């Protein structure tokens, strides 16, 4: 090929020389100009002839690239690859698809990942083993950029064999939502290396991470609570505007990345502390980095109160939250002070009742004792009128003693806020024991008590309190009722509760003798308070057992007292 090329160049030079000599003989004038033109033609014609010869030779070697290569002028010849290098076998381990092309655009090597990502089979690659044909296959499988003029894009890619000096990359978004990174790099031995990398998971992860960070920033920015997050290296990573409002000393400086000791140093300018500064600072740093959850209050120099909370994070970071609770703290302190004052007032009232009741007991006991001496006629015989007077004094003293005992009992329960001492007992035994003293008093005033048969079921309650409430109420009714009255006592089980109904035909509760509750039968009836210590004691005991009391009166000649107590203990409300 070199001999034929040299012969062609020599033939061209000889032809040009003959032509120039002939022209120089024909033209006599301007000999110098003619010689210059002849010299230029002698130089240019061989060069143009050589370029033409080289272009024709390339068309013969690569007929399929006639259009693409018509304007390619390689700067320097490249080395051709020897048969497949064993070192390419390492590329099989890559998760990225790799294809190697030599300087003649022949496919030298392709790994399995490349076939998987591009969807090309072995037979297709074997039949189309040149770079232009591979581009056509990739376009068919839609693994390339969607361009308007694919032929221009294809020519541009082919030119990279002659012009590429540095790796270039592009990103391809596939119709199915996948994302590929397409890298073209020059091959040191000639040709190019193309790489396809599936970065769908990476892009999705990065997108989700960026979205999460954006949501967190927006959330923190709109929080009323101040938040600061220190990394595992104790340097500030996150701070929201609320925290900078709570700590004004952090507003005018760049605090991001600042060490926790420097942050606390700035914060301590507004904190009111009494002990040594260095000691307080070291203690505060220790409390905010010891990875033990805690919360507390910090008093500022301006009188505000900041409630802080510390929470260790799983990645070794430290989360600090701050909230200005000055108003709620002052309100809480005020309510606590009022509550303590109210407790002192109630305690003083109860102490007065207790002491007054005890003071009443001493002279009352003396009156009862002297009355018993007179009635027993130890100091002389009494006539019938004197005996009746002494008996009336004795009965009135006993009623007053009972009243004082009830007041002491009720006051002691209110002071101690005692809970019932629950036990299981039979309802019938409760009423039998409670009615034993009642029958004795009723027989003396000729009062008849109609008691129905009592339920034989068991109930859970404080037996002593229930007995006291029933007997005290019945004794009160007997003492208030007229001679010959009838008292009806009825007890039954309704909806897992003991319902007791006591009525008397001679006791009337009017506006002077106030009732406990509004009755269902009289929706327009007025609400009144308690009429006696006995009713107050009954209501308190029933309420302790989560029951209810209702007094119904027609305002003429009949009054009914109803109360209901659950059969079992209600632990959820205890």
Word description of this protein:
- The chain is α+β, with helices and mostly antiparallel strands and 574 residues long.
- The protein has 5 domains: 60 residues, no CATH class; 118 residues, PAS domain (Beta-Lactamase); 102 residues, Beta-Lactamase, CATH 3.30.450; 78 residues, no CATH class; 154 residues, Histidine kinase-like ATPase, C-terminal domain (Heat Shock Protein 90), CATH 3.30.565.
- The protein is elongated and about 185 Å long.
- It starts with a helix and ends in an 8-residue tail after the last strand.
> What is the annotated CATH architecture of the largest domain?
2-Layer Sandwich
The largest sheet is: 5 strands, antiparallel
CATH-defined superfamily of the largest domain: Histidine kinase-like ATPase, C-terminal domain
CATH class of the largest domain: Alpha Beta
Low-confidence stretches: 64-84, 510-531
The count of helical stretches stands at 15
Number of strands: 17
Q: Total domains, how many?
A: 5
Query: Under CATH, the topology of the largest domain is which?
Result: Heat Shock Protein 90
Helix content: 40-55%
Write the layout of secondary structure elements.
Blueprint: H1 2-26, H2 31-61, E1 97-101, E2 107-110, H3 112-118, H4 122-127, H5 131-140, H6 150-163, E3 168-173, E4 179-186, E5 192-198, H7 200-221, E6 226-230, E7 236-239, H8 241-246, H9 260-267, H10 277-287, E8 294-299, E9 305-312, E10 318-324, H11 326-375, H12 384-416, E11 423-426, H13 427-444, E12 448-451, E13 458-461, H14 463-480, E14 486-493, E15 497-504, H15 533-544, E16 548-553, E17 559-566
Helix pairs in contact: 1-2, 11-12, 12-15, 13-14, 14-15
